[in-house]
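Supplementary Methods, section 5.1.

A reviewer requested that the exact input to the structure prediction be made available. We therefore reproduce it here, unchanged from the version used in the analyses.
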Amino acid sequence: MNILDVSNFEIKETEGVFTFKNENTTLGFVRFNERGEVEYIFVNPIFRKQGLATKLLVLVKEKTGKEIILQEPLSPLGSKLLKSLNRWK
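The structure derived from this sequence is encoded token-by-token as follows.
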């Protein structure tokens, strides 16, 4: 996995949503609630496998102070993300 340098991207925060953007597109976003439950996470296919989903989840954990919980139903990609989350613990 390549680690994406997000220093050149804008991080926008609105109520319960973090979004990574550059001047051309949305790289990814995560929607969450105050309990640390991730309701939806998306990473633009061009930017996948570069650590962006992990960076988004770290932002959620820092913001909520809670353990991350992925809400059901999980897509196949969400299941892979859950496995990597379990390695954090």
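DSSP finds two helices and five strands in the chain. These observations are discussed further in the main text.
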